[in-house]
Amino acid sequence: MKTFAFKFGILAVSLMMAAGQTDAQQKKYLGDPKYGPDSAAREECAMRMSLYNEFYKQKNYKDAVNDWRKVYQNCPAASKNTFIRGATIYKNLIKAETDNAKKEALIDTLMMIYDQRIVYFKQEGAVLASKGVDLYSYRGKEAAADVYEMLKKSCELEKGETGAGVTTVMMQSAVDQYRAEEVDGAEVISAYELAMATIDLAIASNKQIVAGGDAKKVPAAQKELENLDVDIKNVEALFSESGAATCDALIAIFDAKYDANKDDVEWLKKVTKLLDKAECNSSALFAKSSEALYALEPSAVAARNLARLFYNKKEISKSLEYYSKACELQDDPELKSQYYVESAYIVLGEVKNYPKVRELANNALKANPSMGKAYIVIGLAYASDAQNIGSEKVEHDAAYWAAVDKFTKAKQVDSSCEEEANRHISTYKKYFPNKEEAFMYGIQEGASVTVGGWINEKTTARF
Is there a contact between 175 and 217 (Cβ–Cβ < 8 Å)? Predict the structure, then answer.
């Protein structure tokens, strides 16, 4: 009885509201064919809209749906809210449904709501984004092909208006198809290109809103930029782990396009980045693309690509020359640090100028104090030159104390280096000075010792 009384009360209130409208308001919908073919149908439509909206506001979706259906069936063109709120109603019904067959039927209806919204109110790109994301959330891999086509078209239509999350789901659906052997690697690469281009446009669009300073719009745009940054990480991870980004696949696709795009800076950046991620930096395509890019637009990324290119060709001096330019041009502290460390390893292995190794590694640490690899390469330089430090064996071997100090520091500042640091510690602590020999030089356990030569650092004696 309480439920019946409540519904009756809502109906009464709704009818009173309809009855209390001004003549102008009544004429507005009574004269509008979107509400129905005649006045009776239009009255019915207005009443049903009022009824379902009251339940909708109370989040009573189960009772809202019957009146909503009447509006959807008889006067769908009356309001875009019929489709927006209808989607919300059905998503909540799907969430509450426990019977699989009934749930699938509700999902089908939700998809139909999106289709009909496009028919009556256009906005195909935005609607396809919602439809594709929802379909993947409900049906996952089994709907990957449909989801991919929806979201691909949405990105192409929406461009910079594409919302965060859409590109991630599009990329996931492309990878799902590739792993199911339904599409080839070229399609995954194409999906990656579209996803990253779309994200770039969306970032530019939201940065423009932030720069505009509209207090009502800026917070949402800032949040969207944070979410788009997550999309970049997700899309790149999906692409890298898909197995589709092989050297052969990338080269086959982009080599044929090189001549037509060799003067396009953005195209060259995209290609060199993809080839680098796939470890194709010894390919002829990477070489000519990198050189063309640097000639058009000298940059840190282009210089680093050339540095790696010349290293692979064993042209060490040219490699280090370009690494120096890359470090100079790079503003991002983490990337600058990475470039310095990469060049330090080349000097360590190829030039064997150990003081220079430390100089480069210290530059890396100035840029990024948490770069554990910088401490590791310094430790390796100390260990590599240990036998040239001092004139006595105990002086040579004391350099290994200093080397292990660096390996220990590496894992303290960067947990990702722990395994490698521990491996080096295990290797080089075997070469610590002999306790008896050290004693002959007045060195005891725990004593402060200065390692000589170019190392010139204090360390602690341990045996």
Answer: no
Give me 178's structure tokens. Answer: 């590739």
- pLDDT tens readout for residues 445-462: 889 999 999 999 999 999
Tokens of 278: 């796939």
Q: Alpha-carbon distance 18 to 42, whole Å?
A: 12
What is the Cα–Cα distance from 148 to 321, expressed in whole angstroms?
Answer: 45
pLDDT above 90 (res 24): no
State the CB neighbour count (10 A cutoff) for residue 99: 9
461, 445 Cβ separation under 8 angstroms: yes
Question: Residue 187's CB: how many other CB atoms inside 10 A?
Answer: 17
Rounded CA-CA distance 37/35 in Å is 7
The backbone torsions φ and ψ at residue 451, rounded to the nearest 5 degrees and listed phi first, read -75, 130
Length of the chain: 463
Task: Kindly state the helix (H) or strand (E) to which residue 457 belongs, with its residue range.
Answer: strand 457-460
- CA nearest 116: which of 124, 125, 126, 106? 124
Summarize pLDDT for 236-287 with one digit per residue, the tens. 889 888 888 888 888 988 888 899 999 999 889 888 888 887 888 888 899 8
What pLDDT does 409 receive? 97
Q: Element (H or E) spanning 56, and its range?
A: helix 39-57
User: Residue 460 belongs to what H/E stretch?
Assistant: strand 457-460
Strands (E), 187-314: none
Question: Distance (Å, rounded) from C-alpha 90 to C-alpha 57?
Answer: 15
pLDDT band at 62 (very low <50, low <70, confident <90, very high): very high
Distance of CA 224 to the CA centre of its chain: 13
Report which residue type is found at 40.
Answer: A
Give this prediction's pTM: 0.62
Q: How far apart are CA 148 and CA 142, in angstroms?
A: 11
Three-state secondary structure call for residue 290 = helix
Q: Average pLDDT of the chain?
A: 91
Rg (CA), the chain: 33
**Count of CB atoms situated within 10 Å of the CB of 55:** 21
Hey, CA dihedral for 395, 396, 397, 399, is it positive or negative?
A: positive
448 forms bridges with which residues in the sheet? 460
Distance in angstroms (rounded) separating the CA atoms of residues 253 and 192: 13
